[in-house]
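The records we work with from here on pair a chain with its fold. These numbers are not coordinates but entries in a learned vocabulary of local backbone shapes. To see the layout at work, look at the sequence and tokens printed below.
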Amino acid sequence: MTATDHLNMPPQTKRVPPAKPHALWNTIASPGKTPLSQLRALVTRVREASGTQLFDAVEAGVPTEVVKLIAKATGQPASVIMELAGVSQTTFVRNEAANKPLPDVAGHRIMGYLRLLATLRKMLDESGDPEQVKNFDLETWFAHWVHQKLPELKGNTPAEMLRNTEGQRAVEQVLERMRGGLAA
């Protein structure tokens, strides 16, 4: 080896163990709880968290388990939730096997999904009749609604609008109009 051979060698890479998941994700995989009750607990945590806490949770990484939880709780195939998050099955499986969180963009989309679900839960809770609310399966309704093309979104689905924060805001505006009783 010459004195300059080290310049052509790839840099050493340290193996960094996965960071500890953010506390927001603690409701996932709670023994003895159904996927629906786990998702509802997660949505409650999202609803009660500050913007900076949600930011920190996404920055720390959204675990692949969240995708599986949403799928189980709503009765949808995990591939549908992966598509919504914009993550391929190959990437998902690779990250899951390595105990790595979702890629950043996918994490932001999943948080957008959870925030919209939290907004709807709040609207439902404030709507009035607790008996009617108790029997309404919001999570399943939302899982189907999010894939419907809406004129208010120029024919896009709410799932498509989760691609960026401006799209998420547009969906939130549709939800606000729904709260006001206007057509959505």
Notes: The radius of gyration is 19 Å.
